[in-house]
Amino acid sequence: MKNKVKSHKVKNINEYKKDKRNKNKKRQGRKIKKFILRFALFLSCFLIIIVNICGYAVIGNLKYDIHYLKKELRQEEIRLDELRAKVDTNTSIREIEERAKEELNMDYPKKNQIRYIEVEQ
């Protein structure tokens, strides 16, 4: 078997220049495609990272808001307890008596309703 060897002899200079230009264009096209693919991959990875960071930032802000609201709720509950205690201490016997008479229809017993019990010593 004989190996065919391409002859590197140039028969026509214009054809040679044309072939050379076509090869360069193909190489440049391949380089551009590779560059675009690499750039797209890099860009997609970058966007995924940015979206994750933004998500964590939103979650952090929401946790901060929840903490602040819980703290505010605790303060309001303490204030409510203090106000209830103040109302309880400011309620006099007279107010209790009036409330019992008006709301519960309670009144002092009359003389015929009272019974005395004798206790032997």
Shape: rod-shaped
Radius of gyration: 48 Å
Order of helices and strands: HH
Structural class: mainly alpha
Count the strands?
A: 0
State the helical fraction. Answer: over 70%
CA distance, first residue to last residue: 145 Å
> If you average the pLDDT, what whole number results?
85
- Low confidence ranges: none
Largest sheet: none
Q: What is the count of DSSP helices, taking H or I runs of 4+ residues?
A: 2
Percentage of residues in DSSP E strands: under 5%
Description:
The protein is an all-alpha fold. The chain contains 2 helices and no strands. 0% of the residues are buried. The mean pLDDT is 85.
Overview in brief:
This protein has 121 residues and is mainly alpha-helical.
Topology, element by element:
Elements lengths: L12 H78 L2 H11 L18
List keywords for this structure.
single chain; 121 residues; mainly alpha; 2 helices; rod-shaped
